[in-house]
Amino acid sequence: MIAAGRKLGRFQLQRLSDGQFRMDGGAVFGVVPKVLWEKVKTPDARNRVTLATNCLLVRTPDANILIEAGVGPKLSDKERDIYGYEREPGLPASLADVGLRPEDIDLVVMSHLHFDHCGALVTPGRDGELTPLFPRAKHVVQARELQAWRRPDPRSKSSYKPENLGILEESNRLLVVDGDATVAPGIRVRVTGGHTAGHQAIYVTDQEQTVVFTGDFLFMRAFLKVNWVSGLDLYPVESMERKVSFLQEAARERQLIWFYHETEPMLGYWTGEGFEPV
Ligand SMILES: [Zn+2]
């Protein structure tokens, strides 16, 4: 799809990429045996699998809304090597490709605040000073997730980076919601938990059509299997429980499922029995 975009009711959906990176396959697939997951994702020589960053731009009649915001330009050389990060084309260039400037973005919504979901929001200017990439936008975050970013547990510390949100908080650009909420006409957030306590899915609906942005709740297509739970989930039992009801609803309501980290195909339907790409 999506370079040319796709319609959802009166809304236009576009995928904006902030590049690809790699993560250890064992960390991604958790207790799933390697003999099974390597059939789905081929690891490289360092046992890493490739992860996309499929940010979702929603253009409604009233607003330009960006869901998720990539890894960004601030990784250290060491992190860049660990994650094999290639920022091609990068979020600002992706945005320019669809004819928009950063100041055209009205609202940013994030599933959660790990570095690979909000890393592009604050970028160093020419003088090295950090500035908001989207100067006019409000940035929607879930209250529990913000708490976790402020005071991360030891395991999450390297994922929640102070520099990714600090100046957005200081300059009053965060819009904090507590629980399920409608954050703009047709845009609803619903807490999933599982991956992190405050993780949310984002539901985009117009004229009775819905696309669900699943963030790390459904890490990749392979995680459509209820008992495939990522080793990166802090609350794996919660993930499985939520997934059962999520998938029932997605099939019943024929909701499109958007995978943030999946390489192609990254959009499609769950029929109740299998995945049907579009
Ligand atoms: Zn992620």
Secondary structure elements and their pairing?
Layout: E1 6-8, E2 11-24, H1 25-29, H2 34-40, E3 48-59, E4 64-67, H3 77-83, H4 91-97, E5 107-109, H5 115-118, E6 122-124, E7 130-132, E8 138-142, H6 143-150, H7 162-170, E9 174-177, E10 181-184, E11 187-191, E12 200-206, E13 209-213, H8 236-252, E14 256-258, E15 267-270, E16 275-277
Parallel strand pairs: 4-5, 5-8, 8-9, 13-14
Antiparallel strand pairs: 1-2, 2-3, 3-4, 6-7, 10-11, 11-12, 12-13, 14-15, 15-16
Residues 114, 116-117, 216, 261 line the site of zinc ion.
What share of residues is helical?
A: 10-25%
CATH superfamily: Ribonuclease Z/Hydroxyacylglutathione hydrolase-like
Strand content: 25-35%
CATH T-level topology = Metallo-beta-lactamase, Chain A
| Quantity of strands, as a count | 16
CATH architecture: 4-Layer Sandwich
Largest sheet: 7 strands, mixed
Evaluate the radius of gyration.
17 Å
Give the H and E element order.
EEHHEEHHEHEEEHHEEEEEHEEE
CATH class: Alpha Beta
Bound ligand species: zinc ion
Spatial ordering of strands, largest sheet: 1-2-3-4-5-8-9
For this entry, give a set of tags.
278 residues, alpha+beta, Metallo-beta-lactamase, Chain A, seven-stranded mixed beta sheet, 23% helix, binds zinc ion
Structural notes for this entry:
- The chain has about 280 residues and is an alpha+beta fold.
- The chain has one domain (about 5-275): Ribonuclease Z/Hydroxyacylglutathione hydrolase-like (Metallo-beta-lactamase, Chain A), CATH 3.60.15.10.
- It has helices at about 25-30, 35-40, 75-85, 90-95, 115-120, 145-150, 160-170, 235-250; strands at about 5-10, 10-25, 50-60, 65, 105-110, 120-125, 130, 140, 175, 180-185, 185-190, 200-205, 210-215, 255-260, 265-270, 275.
- It has a 7-stranded mixed β-sheet with strand order 1-2-3-4-5-8-9. Strands 10-11-12-13-14-15-16 form a 7-stranded mixed β-sheet.
- A hairpin with a 5-residue loop joins β6 and β7.
- The protein is globular.
- It starts with 5 loop residues before the first strand and ends with a strand.
- Zinc ion binds near residues 114, 117, 216 and 261.
